[in-house]
Amino acid sequence: xxxxxxxxxxxxxxxxxxxxxxxxxxxxxxxxxxxxxxxxxxxxxxxxxxxxxxxxxxxxxxxxxxxxxxxxxxxxxxxxxxxxxxxxxxxxxxxxxxxxxxxxxxxxxxxxxxxxxxxxxxxxxxxxxxxxxxxxxxxxxxxxxxxxxxxxxxxxxxxxxxxxxxxxxxxxxxxxxxxxxxxxxxxxxxxxxxxxxxxxxxxxxxxxxxxxxxxxxxxxxxxxxxxxxxxxxxxxxxxxxxxxxxxxxxxxxxxxxxxxxxxxxxxxxxxxxxxxxxxxxxxxxxxxxxxxxxxxxxxxxxxxxxxxxxxxxxxxxxxxxxxxxxxxxxxxxxxxxxxxxxxxxxxxxxxxxxxxxxxxxxxxxxxxxxxxxxxxxxxxxxxxxxxxxxxxxxxxxxxxxxxxxxxxxxxxxxxxxxxxxxxxxxxxxxxxxxxxxxxxxxxxxxxxxxxxxxxxxxxxxxxxxxxxxxxxxxxxxxxxxxxxxxxxxxxxxxxxxxxxxxxxxxxxxxxxxxxxxxxxxxxxxxxxxxxxxxxxxxxxxxxxxxxxxxxxxxxxxxxxxxxxxxxxxxxxxxxxxxx
Length: 579
Hints:
four-stranded antiparallel β-sheet
């Protein structure tokens, strides 16, 4: 283990963890507010090449069209979230989305698709009463991240690439953030980054499920770090499954890759194994129902055995015309073709795939958290979406609150930000914890642990849950955590530089911790809302008495309570939209 006095130190005014839409927007806004600030982005991969924002296919919701309104977008968000969203945060989202989309286009250089009259084209997404999804074909995320990255590079903002965050380090009295201990993936060396303000924007990434959309390096690191310092998280039971993940068979990471919602919005059909449409049995909106409903419908067909050769259902677009599909969805058609599937003219097997976490760290309207000097934005934050996120609201959330966080951190540093002396014992403990798999304990193979995690979360804490399944999941997760704590990497896999086996271990440890919070929150919520469906409590419950879950880690225990939702703008049964 490295000695504490030999650890490389980095000092910066603002440290941003993550380089997706939230982190990049925060860096640009903080720089614009005060160009003299020292701003550093620490990212697990390479800036511009990693993060979930880059993977966004569908688009960005903003109420731009004639006949649409922020009130309509707000009501769609609240109703889609089953009345669990924080209404003030949701109001900030729908208003800020209009400002951010103009900034993306007019100031940052994004080219979005347009109508013949020159206005921005907006397409249909499920669960929305208006076609409001701005897009660049089906490669919207790449367009946004490329332009944001260019602007960050042009401003000389510092970067720590291939540095993973391990732990928040607080000040000696424990009430403020002092910095973050990082691990340089290239060398295996530890880095202590001290900062006046820190933004948590690492993204969620529910890769603890057998079928999942994010890349394997997304392992809920930020949420695990927040739990470890006792920060409260809300809505952790709300894990969104995208209904249509590509089912390409075993032994390929293409399985789980999203086939975006615009396919169903454009009129695509879901067919069972016998080639029959089934969605009308579950919801009058058919394939354009919200993601939670469509995912449960597909899961129901799978459990009933009405499946395709690989165990999913069919997505069919051929009736819309192959040429039209190729034109509208070029990226996905090419991706499917590369895997041997004909999305434009044939049928493609799909399965619900873990996609997004509505839950996250509780935060205030300025993105501040319960730890002084620590801010949060993007998928690490909770409360904006409630029980279910509308497609197109995710990247809007990241950019809207990333910009707010950047402005707020610049103001914070000017007003009361200061470097705070770290508690050295916390740095030593963080390093010791990270070093544990490199010790001399019994060699442990992580692959069986990973497979048990996948199976447990998919089968017992996935799309449909009940008390018995959640109890099984809890017991398995406690066992997996213990195995990781007492195990060790083989002797020939204990080097530090680019040690992917070590990082697999660290990823799994974080995933297990966050999985335990998901299961504990799901046990606490004894009703069914949005993405959370309890087979033993199938009713939605009284909307006027809605409450969200709040979970905190206390040692090895996860304490969860229910907190009443504050209906600050509209109550259930009412609407801000005139009939």
